[in-house]
Design goal:
nine-stranded antiparallel beta sheet; alpha+beta; single chain
Length: 550
């Protein structure tokens, strides 16, 4: 048995360090025969079990799988108190049964649901039985899609990333039953695992990081190659150091040595194209990193794409929160390379092609849903098709205007114009209205859960600035779960840290200092109201930027 384990381990290591031979090669056929003989001997001797992957491939062809999950009452209690802890479950996928499948809840603010609701789930078939697979896959996710009523964002997003050479999970669908209870339609998504890496890289033995413990390279991220250990973080620290180099030329060269820059530029461009505002570049969220041992460079992998195309007018070069994205855009070479990459990839937003793929997904869903449920998804999918076309138009226009000069200042002050409403509140409204003194204003009336804003953008050169304006507010009630509520102003990518005192019924002067660190950067200015009730007016004539002398 020891010799068998050594032989299989050696084969696995060799396989992960070189390209897998073609399926009809002599080596491949000989290995299959040898493996079969070894496994048969083990069975006869009663000393072990052969690997038992299922012939099922849950990602072959668009379809809705039938998945039935059974969890013991005692383990349900564990998931109620500790939703991230793996517990064993039995799982039937299209009638094929699997035992001792590891299962836990997933999702964060917005998508998380309890085990007694419509929970998002991770199923690890190999958690308690290393040999067990469904097809060639050990881990899958069941996303409840509560933040994507079209059920196609993950599908389209993953396909688009893969189309430009960025590894992304395969996606399909499932109707899920949990302990006999129908919990509904789910997006079935491949998990990041050794099998995933082996499909996309010549070597699959590198370190794989996620954001469970840290959300950027300068933090301690979870390493799936060495769980619970701080090993392998040399490559993260090297990239973080490169991002922090003060000289732009040194920074650009160091980044290219630590990060697969061709792939990273495409990764950034796709996040911006798809308005993936909850990804790495803009939010330091929903991403994985693979250290490719073949190149000794980092490759960023997309994740959590259930909210795409939310801002079709999103700037082509928004504020970048991720330290690598920010570092790239703060060098002349990086900004130009990013713009060139985005200009090439925007053609991927082909409305006709993507609409046809969305229709294929809808056709796969149609027979598994009630007429009413299908029509609701179809309506949302039609809206997504329209947003894709609008996003492509917006990006092309922005890129056409990108060579225009920066905002012009007179005596150190420039006025901001062309304000547009964003995230109009449910149960409220946004319009240009007059305050009681007759002044035309940008008006927001809050609904019960309001994060609404008026926005505009301007190109600024490197330096320190102050965003200034005037606001009036009446009967504003804060959001119970927000750190900062009420009306205020800020720039995109930077949060407010203090409340605005609007207890008076007249105009209040407000200001927000910020800094542009790039040679030139498009800055988005935001006049917002975060509230559960009340009204706010912003004076557009007072909205201005003041340049602060260094």
């Amino acid at each position: 048995m020891f010799l068998l384990r050594m032989a299989m381990a050696k084969h696995t290591a060799n396989k992960s360090k070189s390209k897998i031979p073609p399926g009809n090669s002599a080596f491949h056929l000989l290995w299959k025969f040898f493996s079969f003989q070894l496994c048969a001997l083990c069975l006869l001797a009663g000393t072990g079990k052969p690997p038992k992957p299922s012939d099922q491939n849950p990602f072959e062809g668009l379809r809705v799988h039938k998945i039935q999950i059974t969890i013991k009452d005692s383990d349900l209690s564990v998931l109620r108190s500790n939703p991230r802890k793996y517990v064993p479950a039995s799982v039937a996928c299209d009638g094929v049964e699997y035992q001792n499948v590891g299962i836990h809840l997933k999702g964060s603010v917005g998508s998380f649901r309890s085990i007694d609701d419509k929970p998002a789930l991770t199923l690890n078939f190999a958690k308690f039985d290393e040999a067990q697979r469904v097809g060639a896959v050990r881990k899958v996710h069941l996303n409840n899609s509560v933040e994507d009523p079209s059920y196609v964002n993950e599908f389209i997003g993953s396909e688009l990333f893969r189309s430009v050479g960025i590894p992304a999970p395969m996606v399909n669908y499932a109707q899920v039953q949990l302990n006999g209870r129908e919990v509904g339609l789910y997006v079935l998504k491949e998990g990041f695992s050794e099998e995933f890496l082996a499909r996309h890289f010549n070597r699959a033995d590198g370190n794989l990081y996620d954001t469970e413990t840290g959300h950027d390279l300068d933090q301690t991220m979870k390493n799936h190659a060495s769980p619970g250990e701080a090993t392998g973080e040399r490559e993260l620290r090297r990239a973080a150091k490169a991002a922090g180099e003060s000289d732009p030329d040194v920074r650009w060269n160091a980044l290219n040595a630590a990060v697969d820059m061709d792939r990273f530029l495409k990764f950034m461009a796709m996040e911006i194209m798809l308005c993936h505002r909850d990804g790495y570049s803009m939010a330091k969220n929903n991403f994985w990193i693979y250290h490719n041992p073949e190149s000794d460079k980092l490759v960023f992998l997309p994740s959590g794409m259930d909210q795409l195309f939310g801002r079709i007018d999103l700037q082509w070069n928004p504020y970048m929160a991720g330290i690598v994205s920010h570092a790239v855009m703060s060098t002349p070479q990086g900004e130009k390379a990013f713009k060139d990459t985005l200009s090439q990839l925007v053609e991927k937003l082909d409305s006709a092609i993507l609409s046809a793929r969305i229709d294929e997904a809808l056709n796969a869903l149609k027979d598994s849903l009630s007429f009413q449920d299908f029509k609701a998804i179809e309506t949302e999918a039609a809206l997504l098709k329209k947003k894709i076309a609008q996003r492509a138009t917006s990006l092309r226009e922005q890129l056409r205007q990108a060579d225009e000069g920066p905002l012009q200042f007179a005596n150190g002050i420039a006025r901001l114009e062309n304000w547009k409403p964003v995230d109009s509140p449910s149960g409220g409204r946004m319009t240009v209205d007059r305050f009681r003194d007759g002044k035309a204003s940008l008006y927001i009336k809050a609904g019960p859960d309001t994060f609404a804003s008026w926005r505009t953008a301007a190109r600024l050169e490197r330096g320190k600035y102050q965003f200034r304006g005037k606001v009036a507010a009446i009967d504003v009630k804060p959001l119970p779960f927000a750190k900062v509520s009420g009306p205020g102003i800020r720039v995109s990518g930077v949060s407010r840290t203090s409340q605005v005192d609007c207890m008076s019924n007249g105009w209040n002067e407000i200001e927000f200092p910020f800094e542009v660190q790039s040679e030139r950067q498009d800055v988005e200015f935001i006049a917002e109201l975060r509230a559960s009730a009340g009204e706010a007016w912003f004076d557009p004539a007072a909205m201005e930027v003041m340049r602060i002398a260094n």
